[in-house]
Fold this sequence. Notes:
single chain, alpha+beta, 4 helices
Amino acid sequence: MRRSSFLIALIALTSVAPASAQEPFWQCAQFARQFSGIEIRGDAWTWWGQAEGRYERGNSPRVGAILSFAPYGPMRLGHVATVTQVLGDREISVTHANWSPINGARGQIEHDVLIRDVSQDNDWSQVRVWFAPLADLGTTAWPVDGFIYPDAGSKRAVSPIRFASVQMPARRISPPRLAHAGVDALA
Length: 187
């Protein structure tokens, strides 16, 4: 009897957690599916292939499209993010989950964060992504498959998602002014 009472008490104590621990841990694919309405399941690296024949794909950003990242380095499962604004030819903002650790925790949602196309051909094949711990664009050029565009039947579920989210400003970062230096000097 004592042992069962102890186990019940232990279970009760471990099930009571602080509010922050009860916030969901968002994976990028789960969040992107709910946020964009694009009905693809599975790890992010599979989305580009799964979209073939089901959704239009391309290399031009559009609001509501999914930006599909290819696996690279420590990002073995790829990444997906939803375009929320097109800021210019080479800059967009996205809302995504599980990119930056926010207050030391992964699995957070970041709203309207900056992504810059850094590909040589201006084709969105490589990007740099805002990284909250740096409060700037990260230093890695991440390979990108392209954009997956929602169809007319895609239903966005934006409003119910409020958990563990952080608003990160999408701000245009001006390139450095070059007085007499050539572009090759920057490479």
